[in-house]
Amino acid sequence: MYVCLCHGVSDKKIKKLVLNEGITDVRGIKKCTALGSQCGKCVKQAKSIINETIEIQYQQAS
């Protein structure tokens, strides 16, 4: 699913950056993509995806 329609950033891309690059916040995602740089409506959803991905990662590690 596309999270940022303005720049074509998907939830898969965000999850991949969290898991492979260790990014833990929207600022980190913005450094790698154009997320949130136009209308900004995607930032809240991106935060949710980041948090969910981190939570799942910790649950799997336990």
Automatic annotation (TrEMBL):
Gene3D superfamilies: BFD-like [2Fe-2S]-binding domain. Keywords: 2Fe-2S, Electron transport, Iron, Iron-sulfur, Metal-binding, Transport. The keyword Iron applies. Residues 2-52 form the BFD-like [2Fe-2S]-binding domain. Its cofactor is [2Fe-2S] cluster. Belongs to the Bfd family. This is Bacterioferritin-associated ferredoxin. It comes from the Bacteria. It comes from Vibrio olivae.
